[in-house]
Amino acid sequence: MARLSAESEELARTIIPRYPRSRSALIPLLHVAQEQDGWVSPEAIAHIAELLDLTPVEVLGTCSFYGMFKLHPVGRYVVGVCTNISCLLLGGEELLAHCEARLGIKAGATTDDGMFTLEDVECIAACTDAPCLQVNYRYFLNLTHEQADALFDDLRAGRRGDEVPEHGTLTRVRQRIASERWSGHGAEGLPVPPGQVR
Amino acid sequence: MADSEQATKETLTVTLDGKEIEAEPGELVIAAAERNGVYIPRFCYHPRMRSVGMCRMCIVEIDSGRGPALQPSCMVPVSEGMTVTTESALTKKAQDGVLEFLLINHPLDCPVCDKGGECPLQDQTLAFGPGESRFVEEKRHFEKPIAISELVYLDRERCVLCDRCTRFAKEVAGDPLISFIDRGNHTQVNTFPDDPFSSYFSGNTVQLCPVGALLARPYRFRARPWDLDQVESTCTSCAFGCRVALQSSANRLVRKLGVDVDPVNWGWLCDKGRFDFEATNSDDRLGGPLVRSRAPGAAGDGAGELAPGTWSEAWDRVVEGIARARLRPGRESIAVLGGARLTNEDAYAWSKLARSVLGTDSVDAQLGDGLPAEVVVGLPRASIDAACGADTVLLLAPDVKEELPVLYLRLRQAVVERGLQVVEVSPVATAMTPYTAVSLRYRPGEAASVVRAVLSGDQATGTDGPADERRRAGELLRAGSLVCVLGRPSLAESAQPVAAAAASVLDALPEVTFLSALRRANVHGALDMGLAPGVLPGRVSLEEGRRWFADAWGSLPSGPGLDAHGILTGAAEGRVACLVLLGADPLADFPDRSLARRALAGAGFVLAVDGFLTASARRADVVLPAAVYGEKGGTTTNLEGRVSRLHQKITPPGTARTDWMIAAELAWRLGGDLGFTSEDEVWDEIERLAPSHHGLTRARLASAEGFDGLLAGGVPEAGDRDAPPTMSQADSPGVLGAMRHTKDDSLATTGMGHDRHPDPQSGSEPAGAPPGLAAAEGAASAGGSGYADGGTPQEVRGDGDAVQASVATETDQGGSDAFRPSGGGADHGSAQRPSPLRWSGGGATAPTPPPLDRYSLRLVSARKLYDDGTLVQRSPSLAPLAPGPRIRLNPGDLSPLGVGTGTKLQVTSGQGRVVLVAVADAGVPQGSALVTFNQPGPGAADLIDSDGAVTEVRIETLGGAGGATS
Ligand code: SF4
Ligand code: SF4
Ligand code: FES
Ligand code: FES
User: Is the ipTM of this complex over 0.90?
Assistant: First the structure.
């Protein structure tokens, strides 16, 4: 719940020079922050603003545009149950109600133990396998209520860690890009002309 | 050739609602239509900002050859043969639909909304919208207005998401502190939590907002638009001279709005200028004279109490005080301090009164916080547009964002948008520093040596900044057209080093022109009107103008008088028998408070003419109430010499009068006669007598041509930007500091139908040029040597016909060009119109600062926008924004003390000792200490020694070093 750690900041500093304009690194850095804390805290926003020479509200403006960046703490597992048309026809609403009952929270809330955040989401493009849900954006398809219960039990017991990483875990921005492929001003250590920063 | 023909084709033909119109390449359809009298409704489009196509209100049918289609006219540039239809059924249906959507979430709380009555959303709904909404669902809700800064409230329910405020904050102000947050139906404008929209320009967003979503604290719930009365005027809160509309309700000023004039403010205002009208309405205003009661037995000086008196009591005391002073010999027995608050007419009247009736040349509109008058008046000038359009600007000035905020906007935009290169030479980092190509620091007192090192490319001299930075700066200065923005970077060092630096620039790069960065309201007008020692109205020196003005005024003092520092020193030593404070508050504004205090105590008789009872006015023997901004008409002059009109909106309180009236009556009571009975007559006399203002007739100022104001003294006008940047004086490189004209100098070609010059020689002047200037030009180009020494006065011609000092009453209302003699018919044809003063830096040497002492720091002192000034402190909305006195130190100087930001430190100089809160600031170089000037409470003025070249201070922690906290 804080600014970027030394490790995250170091990662951020390798990401920034990949872009001709430092601002372009904004979304990748938001991912770094979300990976660190599971959500994007105001302190992290302020820190990212410093790193990119933006104001915090500019970072917030971008961050709040994307539903997948969480501006409040969420559970270790964010469960999104689809209730859009195909799922609705095949029991999506009932699946959501079952999850609410099973987890003891309403959609939008987080369990007291910080394990699960439940969300009611629109079509996640898995209509052919409705009803379905995502856990930290990993798909679980054609789900019966019993399978959902088993899934929650497994997650709670830590039995599916390899399949479903913690909320916020990244793969993409962790790529190492050789510095000769950097395109940004930071590559040559040049100062940024003020007109270009923002 | 075909290529270049294509490239130079100037207009395109477009069919607009069936009519063929001409449009410029690149022009947006919405702008071309507006120019041709067709108004396309819009919310987000603003001609001074980039188009974003947010609101879709401007949708019209556009056919660029592929068939008509609905397109946002603010996003589509014109093209040859394009057809635009703004009134088709399809267009109307689209506009109707856009408005219905915009109103879906709009609360329609017009009856309690400040915008109601002047609201584009109301107006356009009425003109283009549906009568009814089909939306029956719940509208979105937000907490009703939230304060997004100390000055601005935001009602998010009313927002139509046009992106004007946010675009302004980012593109124009460079303070992106508000932004769209969230998405879709939840999108709102907001700040980051705990990071308010504290921009110096926040008020502009209120003016830009097309609905009542953004509201200004000083105006909220004060008036309804249909109750407002307005005049156009010029802002005098600083010397930039933004054009404004001044609005009042029930004889109180309630709002100031920016008016777009191209050469100056582009419609923007700073928040100080926008909101400090509150001071005019304050209860503190003087509505009648105050007279100090005579304490029994005591001869004066502070004894007795200031109490309300009548004007005749006050006059009796003033006349007595002046009469006594007149018995005292010496050039400083009567002195007049101040005048930057005055209009040009006021300043002229006081200048004439001082010279011809009081018999003193010891007058100074600056309070030791500017530059020597001959430097300001006598350097070759640049306009604002010339500075923003130059290749390079040399910034030798205080932080322009703090002192001349809209100049900062213009320069910043020139950097960001057209790549202006800025070279800054300053004692500390400023708000411009991030936008500079090179920013060099100098240690107080060493400005001239740093500038010389840059100019000479000499790597060995100079003390600060890596050598290659200096080399790059030198290259930039020589790279093309150059304008030097010249001000007083720090009040804690004397003006000499800066003047010497300017002289070196002029010497090394004779094509350079200068834009003054003095901040005080009408200081340039006051200097132009001769409120400075040795300077007479029209930018002429006392000696050069002696004959001309003696003829017109009757008499002149025999030699130059003293400047503010000299006057105050004289007063402190008891040699000033009568000190007049013309809206001057030396206790607050003179850099050396101890000297100001001693001066007020030591002066024999003190007369203050002011709108407010300032700290200094409290020490006066008589205080006369003056009308202030908004209560008087006349003209004012901005930092580029642009004369523009002021207008009266409300009546002054009680019996307060304008300063020129006070001068005229005082003259009369002293047995003289200034010879004018109205502001207009004063202006006519200025226009006739002041060489730099010759030709700036009232008629021209009031005409369409004068709408933006007119440049005095033959500075190239806007629009000459395309002229060769080095002007057309290539044939006279030896003419140091001569006024430079372009051939198509608008002053010379407009409104100057026939020659008004009484001089028999006038026939030989270039046709139409202002005579005095033309004479100078003629002399320069004829021999190439007329002023080669930088200021040989022109020979005084004429046979010395006496001319009475009084001026005939106005006979020709229209500002006719017929020459009217002053006085009872005597022709003023005896003396030649004097030519303007030129300053080439002759004799400008910087005093050598004392050797560095490793225990002390050099003091730098500069202002913040919100300070302890008379107007800010009497504006309830602005007063709390003054940040308070701080001492800013390089972390390298602060950490050895074992303390950090927020710690109180004891700061001691030869003048005094104050306790200040420390702030670590990497923008302050090691070895210097920045103390903000004129903040509430003790501060820089208690430390600065105005006799010294620089001020050294020692810093100690409280409790340490003996804990001497006196
Ligand atoms: S913004 Fe305009 S339309 Fe909206 S409530 Fe205010 S006056 Fe009415
Ligand atoms: S607050 Fe006003 S200016 Fe800003 S986006 Fe909303 S409607 Fe536009
Ligand atoms: S409707 Fe549920 S995945 Fe498409
Ligand atoms: S004015 Fe064109 S889209 Fe808003």
Answer: no
B192–A45 CB contact, under 8 Å: yes
Residue pLDDT, tens place only, B599-650? 999 999 999 999 999 999 999 999 999 999 999 999 999 999 999 999 999 9
Give me the DSSP letters along B725-744: TTTT-TT-TT-TT-----TT
Residues B493 and B360 in one domain: no
Rounded distance between C-alpha atoms, residue B818 and residue B801, angstroms:
20
User: Is the distance from CB of B203 to CB of B274 less than 8 angstroms?
Assistant: yes
A61 in B contact zone (CB under 8 Å): yes
- Among B183-192, B674-683, B951-960, the minimum mean pLDDT is found in B951-960
Nearest to A56 among B195, B417, B434 (CB): B195
- Whether the per-residue pLDDT at B855 is higher than 80: the answer is no
Question: pLDDT at position B838, please?
Answer: 85
- By C-alpha distance, the chain A residue nearest B196 is A57
- Cβ of B486 closer than 6 Å to ligand 2, yes or no, is no
Determine, for residues B181 and A57 on separate chains, whether the beta-carbon distance falls below 8 Å. Answer: yes
* Residue type (1 letter), B349: A
Q: Which domain holds residue B479?
A: 373-516
- Residue B109: inside a domain: no
What pLDDT sits at residue B836?
A: 83
Chains A, B: CB contacts within 8 A come to: 47
Q: Are residues B464 and B581 in the same domain?
A: no
pTM: 0.86
What b/e readout covers B554-574, taking b as 16+ CB neighbours within 10 angstroms?
A: bebbeebbbbbbbbbbbbbee
Do B512 and B536 fall within a single domain?
no
Low-confidence ranges of chain A (pLDDT < 70): 1, 171-198
Same-domain status, B602 and B622: yes
* Whole-number pLDDT of residue B402: 97
| Closest-CA residue of chain A to B187 | A65
Domain identity same for B620 and B710 = yes
Q: Distance (Å) from the C-alpha of residue B184 to the closest C-alpha of chain A?
A: 9
Which residues of chain B make contact with A41, given a CB cutoff of 8 A?
none
Domain A77-156 class in CATH: alpha beta
Ligand 2 atom, smallest distance to B208 CA: 3
Residue B205, in any domain of the structure:
no
Mean pLDDT of chain B: 85
Q: What share of chain B is helix, strand, coil (3-state, %, to 5)?
A: 30, 15, 50
In this prediction, residue B851 carries a pLDDT of 74
- Of the listed ligands, the closest to the CA of B51 is 4
* Separation of alpha carbons B153 and B147, rounded Å: 4
- Chain B positions in Cβ-Cβ contact with residue A55 (cut-off 8 Å): 175-177, 179, 192, 195
d(CA B226, CA A166): 61
* CA dist list (Å): B729 to B476, B746, B792: 22, 16, 19
Q: How far apart are CA B355 and CA B550, in angstroms?
A: 10
Stretch B384-397: mean pLDDT: 97
Angle at B732 between CA B730 and CA B734, to 5 degrees: 125
B195 vs A contacts (CB less than 8 Å): 55-57
How much helix, strand and coil, in percent to the nearest 5, is found in chain A? 50, 10, 40
Cβ atoms of A155 and A135 within 8 Å: the answer is yes
Q: Give the distance from CA B276 to its chain's centroid.
A: 14
Check if B57 has its Cβ closer than 6 Å to any atom of ligand 4: yes
Query: Which amino acid type is present at position B217?
Result: R
CATH classification at residue B942: 2.40.40.20
B448-504 pLDDT tens trace: 999 999 998 765 554 555 788 999 999 999 999 999 999 999 999 999 999 999 999
Q: Which ligand is nearest to the CA of B45?
A: 4
What top-level class would CATH report for the domain A1-73? mainly alpha
Rounded to a whole number, what is the distance in Å from the CA of B186 to chain A's nearest CA? 10
